[in-house]
Amino acid sequence: xxxxxxxxxxxxxxxxxxxxxxxxxxxxxxxxxxxxxxxxxxxxxxxxxxxxxxxxxxxxxxxxxxxxxxxxxxxxxxxxxxxxxxxxxxxxxxxxxxxxxxxxxxxxxxxxxxxxxxxxxxxxxxxxxxxxxxxxxxxxxxxxxxxxxxxxxxxxxxxxxxxxxxxxxxxxxxxxxxxxxxxxxxxxxxxxxxxxxxxxxxxxxxxxxxxxxxxxxxxxxxxxxxxxxxxxxxxxxxxxxxxxxxxxxxxxxxxxxxxxxxxxxxxxxxxxxxxxxxxxxxxxxxxxxxxxxxxxxxxxxxxxxxxxxxxxxxxxxxxxxxxxxxxxxxxxxxxxxxxxxxxxxxxxxxxxxxxxxxxxxxxxxxxxxxxxxxxxxxxxxxxxxxxxxxxxxxxxxxxxxxxxxxxxxxxxxxxxxxxxxxxxxxxxxxxxxxxxxxxxxxxxxxxxxxxxxxxxxxxxxxxxxxxxxxxxxxxxxxxxxxxxxxxxxxxxxxxxxxxxxxxxxxxxxxxxxxxxxxxxxxxxxxxxxxxxxxxxxxxxxxxxxxxxxxxxxxxxxxxxxxxxxxxxxxxxxxxxxxxxxxxxxxxxxxxxxxxxxxxxxxxxxxxxxxxxxxxxxxxxxxxxxxxxxxxxxxxxxxxxxxxxxxxxxxxxxxxxxxxxxxxxxxxxxxxxxxxxxxxxxxxxxxxxxxxxxxxxxxxxxxxxxxxxxxxxxxxxxxxxxxxxxxxxxxxxxxxxxxxxxxxxxxxxxxxxxxxxxxxxxxxxxxxxxxxxxxxxxxxxxxxxxxxxxxxxxxxxxxxxxxxxxxxxxxxxxxxxxxxxxxxxxxxxxxxxxxxxxxxxxxxxxxxxxxxxxxxxxxxxxxxxxxxxxxxxxxxxxxxxxxxxxxxxxxxxxxxxxxxxxxxxxxxxxxxxxxxxxxxxxxxxxxxxxxxxxxxxxxxxxxxxxxxxxxxxxxxxxxxxxxxxxxxxxxxxxxxxxxxxxxxxxxxxxxxxxxxxxxxxxxxxxxxxxxxxxxxxxxxxxxxxxxxxxxxxxxxxxxxxxxxxxxxxxxxxxxxxxxxxxxxxxxxxxxxxxxxxxxxxxxxxxxxxxxxxxxxxxxxx
Length: 1100
Prior knowledge:
CATH architecture of the domain at 829-1046: 3-Layer(aba) Sandwich
CATH superfamily of the domain at 829-1046: P-loop containing nucleotide triphosphate hydrolases
Strand content: 5-15%
């Protein structure tokens, strides 16, 4: 019989009595009165205050409240009472230190019943209170145990936030069951079966501890899985579901109640796609694969252990070359990075003075193409040299050896840290320590690495020359090379360093080095508006068809030539292609390039690394065959259809690889290769002995299985039996259920229907196992034969790569000839190097603006030469086209030295060894430099590095400070470049008094941008820009006109106009007074000051 439920009041009293202070001599009544009065005053607020705090423990304790039998028998009302009291109890327990009086009064019950009822009941309930107390204590202990570690609640909340809605109950349920098991996890030994982790998870943990910075993708059966924190990251990046569980790998007590790792999974065939996305997001990704196969494991002696798994592939942005080729460059902001992995180290140079000079070594590797760039240089406190190299190389990953100085570190962070940075995306940065003896260790490590290569290599001359070249590298570069070999060994790419033909010094002086500031201000690789490639010089020139051609042209644009012979050769080739456009030889060349859609350069390097798939190998070899057979009749340069040596040499390099490529294609069965069928990939006569043995083994087993049918038929008393395959299970023998009595007990039933049953005989099972073992051994033999084929092809890497480079050169020359075919482009003529520096342009235009402006570009003609005019001082109204004019001139010079035709009617020039620019106003918050500091620092660098054959552009120097200081700096710099450096200079200014100084300097010519100023219908002055360059000085900048165009409120402009005319009036008056003084001086003292008087009157 169920116990009768207590009335509600009584229930509440049992609780109150627990908290009421027990007193002697009947003082309880007094306390009661006091509490009643207080409770009446507080009751609404106290209820409100208590309700939120009461809610959470109620839920928790109801879950906990699974007491044995006793609790089951209790009514629902009793359970509610227990839960409520436990909530209060835990509350008081937690807050014992606070004054008990105030706390208990809050929970006093506002008793509306007569007081004597309470007194009557109190004694009856004392026994019950003691029991209640004990139970409350037990509940509290259980609650604290459940709470566990102080972080547990926060962790739980995070888990619930991360988990999908449906998983909450599951997570809670697990927590309850695991209470008892929690302590076990801490004490668990590695490999023990008793702990919560499965053997596979323990195996995963062992690999993870060695690679904590890597996201591991683990092969488990037919899926790839992520565990723990990796799963959370993968779920976020790949938009897949993460099943909640342990996140940490150190078995922390806060996760003691969880019995499995958080996990996420992807299907096997989607691995390349997802790995690529994780790598593109900047993570380091490792793939852990099962090394054994099922059938061979079954036959082996380790059949009861988990599959052996190993980390087989590691990828980062710089080293990703796998199944699906290169990473797709985001078409977002920024120029695409060159895919280079850059290693940098630096030491303090010659003491550590205020100049903060450093000695820097860099080594950049592009694993996707095999290019290696190195350099060793000294840099000043602006770190301009490092910036220039980083902008040219645009790495997607940094490897930093040792500590960098503050300036360099900030620069690297600035250039790599943001997702809209110079390289188009966030770059990954890794650091390795640098010991005191690093230089000696690096030298011996590199020597050892190349000495081993020498032993293996049969072509001794090249290998010996290679070792010789490497050992002569400067010390900082050797340190970088050693670090890079170690770094790439982790990714299995270290043998890229065998290809030392592609070792290039960055600052080889056959190229003009354009620094980072110039690249940005001339918009060479990206425009300065939204930092995308559209609207840049490279965009205007890039009409290439192939990917290797695109990459080579990018290099050509960033490194204009300084060798006149090479330049003339390049221009002659472009001119010949231009003259012969629409003729058969050029059409044939275009057809060849259009067919070479495969990125042969990347595919070749993937063959070299052994990472190529079968279908890809066939398509690459076929593409190479097409390329080689296109000019198969050309045996020597004289047979080629062109006269330019550059074109003929490139065409001649193509057919030389034909025999090599055909010899490899002979071995391959095309149909099987396209389907990626490893068993039929090689034609029969090219199969290895192992492959043939296992194929014979499989044929023998199948023959035996065929022969076994007669034996099986005899046993079940039939004439013949046929094998059937159901649901992928082969060699089943079907027996009608009516004849089942004839089936021996040794046969195992696999499946059946109402009418028949399907069996395997013991002999069939044995033979199937034997066949599966042969199959897996055959698969291994096929893989080995394929790897051997890739190794054989990579031995011919050099000639194949040379042919692809020749193809890229042809593509670039054809692209430049398409640019030259545009109207108004002409061939530049270079003056002999003995002549004085000269640039003479007739009707020049801006190479980029004429593509983007709708109305066309107004041409300009100008000449800079030694001894005069060495410099142009350019004045003119705001928005009059001054900056556009100087940039157009610089771009024309740059294009000429790339080997392209230029947008001008005529251009004659001597070679410039550098182009320096100082334009625009920007601060550098990363380096803590103001706008003016950046301005003068760049100017200082130009003054240090410019020579007589440089072209220097200074745009509004001195505008970032007060007028007097700015004008003084501008005047001093102008004087220095004209008299000391004597380089060709374009100097833009709004300081009109500089024009007076210019007249006194030899070699400076005043030019201005033409305009018309006239009164409009509304009485305001209107300025029309003519965008033409004329001689003389513009005495006003017409800033108010620009303010009007920018729609500054009319009221503001009127005030500004008034102030401007007042100031001009004052200035005129002062000058007039000065002239009067000079005139009286001339009258009194004779004609000494006469010249000064005349020039002052002219200026007025």
